[in-house]
Amino acid sequence: MEVLAVPLLRRMRAVLACVAVFGSAILSGHVAQAQTRTQTHAPVADPAPDARADCADTGDELRYLVVFDRGTTQQAAEAEIAQACGRTTVYYPQIAVAVVTSDAVAFADAIGRERAFSAEGEAISRPDDGPGRRRIADETTPTHAPITSGAEAVSEADRTDEQWNMRLIGAEKAHAVTEGSRDVVVGVLDSGIDPKHPDLAKALDPALSAGCLTGRPDPSPRAWEPTSSAHGTHVAGIIAAADDGKGVTGVAPGVRVASVKVVDDSGFIYPEYAVCGLMWAAAKGMTVTNNSYFVDPWLFTCDTGRREHVVYEAVRRAVDYASGAGVAHVAAATNSASDLTKPRAQNGKLDRGGVASSNQARQMDSSCDVLPAGLRGVTAVSAVGPNKLKAGYSAYGLGVVDVAAPGGERAEGADPEAGCVLSTVPNGYEYSCGTSMATPHATGVLALLASAKPHASPTQLARSLATQAESLPCPTDYDLNGSGTQDAYCSGYGPFNGFHGHGLVDALAAVN
């Protein structure tokens, strides 16, 4: 979709008075380029009188995403933001997206609501049942108990016998060939990775880690270490836990991981967090990002309307830019148990009353996706249990799901841990089920592929991951609770279907 034209400004005095200095080390080169381009830019126009915000009319200070025309310089973007009574946290000139804070009530109107949106404000405005709150179970939901960690508290017992998931994808056999290359870096965009866990200490690269909870990368350890959620540590262990005869072993224990924190202490992944994480991965030359989340404030984000388009466009640009920089992306299909090809029946915000009109329904079918899993250039992963059947909670959809991987499935009436995936958490190991667990299996296999094919592009790696997968046909019967009714309908055929995509990822095939 073509981005709406943006009026540029002559008056730069507001920059000196109101704009926070943009100075991240990873973007300094891009800033210099942007400033050089400014010299050849045509003089900018004054805003219309009614576009000026009243800075005296203040409310809650909110964080906004602002999407500009591609090619807009940092200088021009910051000037317009300042004129609207905003303060620039960071501007990514490569994709013309800014993260801004403002307490001006009229900020979004001054910039244009088709270009500025606050997911944080959306959550505040509808605290009870609005789109800012999760409507489905999600593993990123924090415990709200402070995370404390220490290597001395972790048992050294070998628990690899409990890793049915690794045997299911041939990981143990693959390790006899290779465990992956240290040149391969996996960015774990999540809630943070425990740097003291003995199974992760050697794999974690602190120099490549950063926190993104302001929308601007912060490389200090306090910004990327976990605070209230073990989710990121669990995901990282599935990818790269050490093969040392203790604890558990990851799919690719020879690769490095970076902690890129995009999940806040309330369990939200606002779009500016994701944009920051993706841009950081590109800046640091990572090989692949693992995205075991969906972007808030909605399960489905539509490339239509004003607010939705801002989020969709910003995340899409970040994904595309990182892909172009050589970064592959793997993402969870989510635990909504929904058909991702039919978003109108799943999204609770369609007409603010939860029911879509016929026009909205037709429009949303073709323009709404779970982000980032539904975007081009992202490998979407569904979850299977030990029986290689789509887990009941896993979302699905023909043409959306690319591959399947072990996410686990709790057996009714059995031990609640039975059938789930064992991995690392601060101070030890725990079981968890979800597409969040399936995704790092696929990421780990892709990391093994990248180790064997160091010059392959993200597209080539994704294609190899899919073509080497083990075909899983649609089940003849998908009545999970014995009620006599199908719990979901699988479309497609053996080599490619809505439940499993191209099939179950195969670690042994990747290294061979």
TrEMBL record:
Residues 119-138 have a biased composition (Basic and acidic residues). The lineage of its organism: Bacteria, Bacillati, Actinomycetota, Actinomycetes, Pseudonocardiales. Residues 182-476 form the Peptidase S8/S53 domain. Keywords: Hydrolase, Protease, Serine protease, Signal. It holds the Pfam family Peptidase_S8. One of its GO terms (molecular function) is serine-type endopeptidase activity. GO terms for biological process: proteolysis. The keyword Magnesium does not apply. This is Subtilase family protein. Residues 119-147, 338-361 are annotated as: Disordered. The active site is at 190 (charge relay system), 231 (charge relay system), 436 (charge relay system). Residues 1-34 form the signal peptide. InterPro entries: Peptidase_S8/S53_dom, Peptidase_S8/S53_dom_sf, Peptidase_S8_Asp-AS, Peptidase_S8_His-AS, Peptidase_S8_Ser-AS, Peptidase_S8_subtilisin-like, Peptidase_S8_subtilisin-rel. Belongs to the peptidase S8 family.
